[in-house]
Amino acid sequence: MSVSMKYKTFNGNPVSVIRVQSEGVIPMKQHRSISYTDSVNEEEILVTKPVLPPFSEFLPMLETIWNNRQLTNAGPFHQQFEEALCSYLGVEHICLFANGTLALVTALQALRITGEVITTPYSFVATSHALLWNGIKPVFVDIDQHTLNLDPGKIEAAITPQTTAILPVHCYGHPCDVDALQTIADTYNLRLIYDAAHAFAVNNAHGSILNYGDLSVLSFHATKIFNTFEGGAIVCPDRKTKNRIDQLKNFGFVNETTVVAPGINGKMSEFNAALGLMQLKYIDSYIEKRRTIDQRYRQRLAAIQGITCLKGVGERTPNYSYFPILVEEAYSLSRDELYHQLKNRKIHPRRYFYPLIPEFSMYRGLPSARLDLLPVAMEASRKVLCLPIYPDLELDVIDRISACIADLS
Ligand code: T4K
Predict the structure, then answer these.
(1) Ligand 1 centroid vs 223 CA: distance in angstroms?
(2) Could you tell me if residue 45 is inside a domain?
(3) What's the gap in Å between 296 CA and the centre of ligand 1?
């Protein structure tokens, strides 16, 4: 067997490609996997780099899994992780999932959402995809120019007799206008499901932002501030809803012989749950490091004309999950020119979220996908650049990134 590693790009991003080639009587087979190992090219600065607990601390947990052979289906680590998360986040009930997308799809199923759902055009595609997977028609409404979250002032005009719910996103972890959204939901008898994939550990003056609406959906993907490799969760207010969601994520089983709904397999494994438990020990230190990075960027970028650092509104404890800047006309380069110039300098920011969801072919034909109806989202999609931010990012690297942006102006 031979192993070789090559540096390549994937979706325009630097990755290392590991090639494993086996030899022998069996015809040669190539296994291809993609990793993000730093050793291949130490100088590349990626938009994020997942944090992990010390390997030695995780090993005893792995040993437990190896010994007890409970690999999935609500094992002991799963139970402990659910309890620990509820207590850390300040929420009543949580249902763990294999990833955030399955959690979104299941949240819509759990509340039996049909017809039309009002949502934001400015998000990762998974938000709208979850609607399509449920046969629901997304209705895009423009965003607020300060928070880049769904603009409550524009929602009422989009409500029709078919509207059943609102699906906003706490974009970059910056809270939506939760009170205004709840008022609209109550007035029109709509369900309110938050895509809170970016909003882990965000609190406003009253506590966790995850306690608003009917349900909130989290992602624990590798690129998120809190990761379980892959993972996700639904935060729900009562035991009855939790039971229904737990059934739906387990094929609809309520016991060995009874299936009450066409459920899916959305379960989180013991491996992911054990890792999550371990990550919880360190999450406060991860967020604190991100806070320092956020502050450093703001200091270093403050004087650059045409660069605006986005800020949340109403967070008592932010999570600093992204560092989005707006590249305004007063800056000498366009957002895309800056993006490419930085890439040439081995700095890899990301254009979250470009293109806009309504620009993708499966959404383009919808009446609400007309880009002239979504001017704020369009502008954000053409101006925002998310700069690298992760706990291990050294302050001198932030200074280097900021200096590049200043030099290019
Ligand atoms: N709702 C919202 C609002 C979301 O943002 C997301 C996910 C979801 C729902 C769905 O939740 P999940 O089903 O994913 O749990 C990434 C993530 O794949 C995606 O989870 C995330 N949002 C989205 C905003 O970003 P990409 O296309 O940027 O991923 P990728 O592979 O290019 O990674 C970005 C950078 O991170 C790379 O430059 C390298 C680094 N990286 C990535 C991975 C996966 C690593 O260093 N190690 C890794 O293992 O989508």
Answers:
(1) 5
(2) no
(3) 24
